[in-house]
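Quick one, C-alpha cells below:
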C-alpha cells in the first residue's frame, strides 16, 4: 500500500515538516534522532536542517527513495533504514530522541514497538509524537478507517511506561499535510522524557 501511495512525483504528505514537530523540535536533545514511519522524509530532512543526526525508518522503499531525493534537495544527510517496525531493533540507550508522526500501526504492534523505543532511548532522551486519536474515524481528513491504528492518551501512557510526560494532549486541529492529511482532525500530541 505505502509503495503505491508514494509512487508519484508529488509528495503525498508534502515536503514541509509536521506542525507539532516544527513547533516543538527544540524539546529534543541534540544528537541522534530516530524518526518512525518516516515515509518520504519531510520530518527527517527538517530535523537534519536543524542540526540533528537523523535516522529515518520506513517499510516503503519508494518512500525512502523520495526521502533521499528530498535530503539532496536540502543539502542534508539522513540515514535511511528500510525495515518493518514490528521487527526493528532500537538497541538500548542508543537514541537521544524518538519521533513518531502519524505512525499508523495496529495497537498490539504499536505497543510493542513503543516499548522497544523506550528501551532504545538514552537517559534524558525524549519521545515526541503526534497521532490520530480513535475519534479521527468520525472525520474524513486522514488516517484511514480503522480505530485500532489510532492512539488515545491512555494507550500512550501504557505504551510509554517509564517516561515522564512533559506534554500530553488530545485536541482538534486543522492539519494541512499534502493531499492525504487535510482538514479538521482529532489528534494526540505528546512529549515524554526518560
Amino acid at each position: 500500500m505505502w509503495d503505491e501511495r508514494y509512487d508519484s512525483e508529488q509528495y503525498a504528505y508534502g515536503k514541509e515538516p509536521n506542525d507539532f514537530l516544527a513547533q516543538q523540535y527544540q524539546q529534543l536533545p541534540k544528537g541522534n534522532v530516530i524518526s518512525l514511519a518516516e515515509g518520504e522524509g519531510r520530518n527527517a530532512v527538517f530535523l537534519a536542517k536543524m542540526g540533528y543526526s537523523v535516522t529515518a525508518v520506513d517499510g516503503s522503499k519508494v518512500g525512502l527513495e523520495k526521502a533521499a531525493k528530498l535530503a539532496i534537495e536540502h543539502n542534508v544527510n539522513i540515514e535511511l533504514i528500510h525495515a518493518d517496525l514490528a521487527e526493528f531493533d532500537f538497541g538500548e540507550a542508543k537514541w537521544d530522541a524518538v519521533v513518531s508522526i502519524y505512525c499508523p500501526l495496529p495497537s498490539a504492534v504499536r505497543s510493542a514497538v513503543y516499548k522497544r523505543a523506550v528501551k532504545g532511548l538514552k537517559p534524558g532522551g525524549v519521545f515526541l509524537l503526534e497521532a490520530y486519536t480513535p475519534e479521527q474515524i468520525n472525520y474524513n481528513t486522514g488516517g484511514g478507517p480503522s480505530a485500532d491504528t489510532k492512539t488515545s492518551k491512555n494507550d500512550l501512557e501504557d505504551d510509554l511506561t517509564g517516561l515522564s510526560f512533559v506534554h500530553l494532549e488530545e485536541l482538534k486541529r486543522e492539519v494541512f499535510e499534502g493531499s492525504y492529511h487535510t482538514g479538521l482532525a482529532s489528534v494526540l500530541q505528546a512529549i515524554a522524557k526518560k
